[in-house]
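Task: sequence in, structure out. Protein: SDR family oxidoreductase.
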Amino acid sequence: MADQNKIALITGGSKGIGYGVAEVLIRQGISVAITSRSQESADEAAASLNKIREGAAIGIQSDVRNLESQQKAVDAVIAKWGRLDYLIANAGVGHFAPVSELTAEQWHETIDINLTGVFFSAKAAIKALTETKGYFITISSLAGTNFFAGGSAYNASKFGVVGFSQAMMMDVRDAGIKVTTIMPGSVATEFNNHQPSEKDAWKIQPEDIGQIVADLIKMPARTLPSKVEVRPTMPAK
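Result:
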């Protein structure tokens, strides 16, 4: 396999988009570490992924809101495989309410996970990615350019991820690191307590985002799609 010996770390990889990305990368020959705040969830997801290719996945307990926790996750990947080629900063949460009803706790959780968590992931991984001339991919949202009522915290976090990613791209390009932010529209996941069903067939599927990640890392070294907006082809009416 062309990507054999390449290593990816995916935050929030036990379900949803993160798990979909992990599935695709493993099928491409890449070994994957997935993180979750729950070690049990991370282990269960890794066990499922290892059915695709034995020994291709490990689960790590980590909280993106804590820099030390993120550093331990990166260190665990290095200890296991000796390198880190790709980091997909995917962990996210959503609280949706008017500002008058949004609590301080909801605001902080949204910003701390969705935005500060991306910063901590970058800080923890940048040395390892410099050594491999690797790729840092953030999962933002179309909510990172399109605001909506009730979205103050989520919009702020995702606008921030887009801005952070584009600025970081310029910071690290001379070190040989690529940075891209992917901005999906509606994806069929458990996000915001949703239960995916056949009614979600029109939505982007998690593995579709995984295919975008796989395509990005195969781009020629001279070419960088720094921001990728993704929409369902035919939205529900």
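The chain has one domain: 7-230.
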